Amino acid sequence: MPGSRGSAPGLVLMRDLLFLSHRIPYPPDKGEKIRAWHMLRHLARTHRIHLGCFLDDPADRAHLDELRRQCADLHVIDIDRTRQKLLSVLRTRPGQPLTLGYFSDPRLRAWVQAKVGGGIDRAFVYCSAMAPYLMGASRVRRVLDMVDVDSAKWAEYAARSAWPASAVWAREARTLLAVERAAALDFDRTLFVSEAEAAAFVRLAPETAAKVGWLDNGVDLEFFAPAPGFAAPVAGRYAVFTGTMDYWPNVDAVTWFADAVLPAIQVRHPGTKFVVVGANPAPSVQKLADRENIVVTGRVADVRPYLAHAALVVAPLRIARGIQNKVLEAMAMGRPVLATPQAFAGLRALPGRDLLVAADAADFATRAAEVLDGVWPALGTAARAAVVRDYAWAATLAGLDALFAVPTQALNTSLAHEATA
User: Can you give the pTM of this predicted structure?
Assistant: First the structure.
């Protein structure tokens, strides 16, 4: 049997599992990679992992050894972002989203076919863009983690953009939703990052309800913990935002905060700084650093010192899907967090006790000033308690084991019975 490590007493029988990810799942330094990494590491406890993924950041190549320690086989395909964007346009066909063209690769397709042909009968697919590599592979027990409803994200982009970009994003939303619906029907199980996100997808694709579920994100509670020993990375009192800073929702969030919220905060608390922490700051984010009391760091080795010394952690996202890891990490470190409703959506936490939520610029500025005034002294302690209670990785990922515990044939028979019942 593939993956057997023996059947003698005391030896563990390991099944082979194909793991596909649209980006290399290490290092876990951004939301999509954090979830993928913890899922891979969890599954590696009980499976021999065969990982196929793309690498679009040359800096990530330095971390391949860590992945090799987790995997029985590693197939990493280097891609150039600019070239892939061009290819996605050239490969586009009527009714097909650009996303599929971006992540389509004959080398990965051949590797997947060889693995399935060699007897691997379990697969975990991370991101809807990777689903086509295993569509129709009914002999394989397949679990798809869409994480978020990506089509809905493109619809939000369309709503906030001017023509012609709005037309492009609206087309991507329509065509990608069709792919998501087909994949959810084809795979044995499809997951999302929260109950709210799963429910949002079922509203768009009600025919998939019986096959859709969710697994919450978690947070590394030992790594992200209240820690007074960090040296202050920025002098003075500041609010901080963390995230990958070439990602449009993050760019929109920090520019909105800098333009519409920070000046009002500084009226009550002159000298309060805004610190933007994250890799690859877009030009509009870099330009913010020209303003007094705004610091743009770029990539940092460790975000924890910036969180630990922040008077306030802000998540002013106006476009957001799923669970925001940046919010969980800040709460785990016992920091007061102020979020928009979009950034709060899906979290099991109580506004006004575990964190603060504000919908518009005036309310955001008022709540931020209250934190700086000392009105919410217990917020950080309650935040840490909420995350410890509901977002430990060991607890959130326990559901993965159940998804692969049922033999493929038995599960498919059960699903067929349910469909015809």
Answer: 0.86
